Amino acid sequence: MAAPGFLAIGSGPAGVSAAETFRRRHPHIPVRILSADPALPYAKPPLSKEFLGGGHTNLDLHSAGWFARHNIDLRLGVTVERIDVDAQEVVTVGGARYPYWHLVLASGSAAVPLAVPGGQSAQPLRSFADAVALKMAARFGDTAVVIGGGLIGCETASCLAGLGLATTLVIPEAAPLLRRFGVDVGKRVAEMLADAGTRVLTSTTVDAIDDNGVTLMTGERVDADVIVAATGVRPDIRLATRAGLATDRGRVVVDERMRTSVRNIYAAGDIAIAHNVAAGRRVVSEHWRDAAQQGLVAGLTAAGAAAAWDKIPGYSGVIGAFTLKYRGWGSDYDSSDLIERADGFSATYRLGDKVVGTLTVTANPAS
């Protein structure tokens, strides 16, 4: 059996950040990462942008040699079946047992299946393997349909259009990014997508998928060589639920130090609903930078250092010729103001008299 020490489940930004942070504080305690993904830890944000667009992007968070030099035992292609809380051990599907003194759950999210006939044939974009498959399909395709009007769907659609595919974005809402940013920004995003060569179909859904394209709820057929499902994600809290950790709204409840309801177990990233000091309440954050920050806090807490999640969440994206940058607490607001600028526009979101989010949309210099 392996020696006990620090253990992270998941090789995304939260798990890797937690492990390397703990290692810096404790150079001699065993540190291990278990990942179901067979690939070296990589950055996901470029998958729907630079990587899909054909750019030469280095996605690796660290090389295999880096993990070896820092004495971090990285186990790839390992699926964890359960956590034995009483014994403080993690059990894999293969029966291997890994004891821990401190455990960070950073298992991320899984794509929500598209529940329509033929939905399983739509290509998701959640992993490096997904991105490679989509990139190859786009190379040999002429037409594409992207289903879903969130950030990943919008980025993917504009990128496929930029590659020369006749691309259609199908969304159930009245405008792209509507649930997060409201109708005014959504209309502007639709214009950005159209300028990038994407046909945007709003207030409709896909009823069926076949080898030649999709059928919409209206009966309209849209031909497509490439079909992408960007229909959302669901936090993977199965291990946490089986272990008896407290959950809320489908996520693991943690305090500002990333501590769960069970001693010596922490959670970070997509699966966590965490108390944010700056917000003064629990906040859900599903983006890369915030997951890494939460992982850092979890690693420091496990190492015995004082730390708290007090950063304002934020993320960025690229749609067509524009870069979007957002900072704030998500979609919980009751009023917004859109301000035109020479190089784009900005929006401010308020809940009562308090600013809870800001968005800036700026034309890229190359455009």
From TrEMBL:
Q: Which cofactor does it need?
A: FAD
Keywords assigned by UniProt, alphabetized: FAD, Flavoprotein
**Pfam assignment, any one:** Pyr_redox_2
Top-level division of the source organism's lineage:
Bacteria
Domain FAD/NAD(P)-binding, which positions?
A: 9-295
InterPro entries cross-referenced by the UniProt entry: FAD-bd_OxRdtase (IPR050260), FAD/NAD-bd_sf (IPR036188), FAD/NAD-binding_dom (IPR023753)
Name used for this protein in its record:
NADPH-dependent 2,4-dienoyl-CoA reductase/sulfur reductase-like enzyme
A GO MF label: oxidoreductase activity
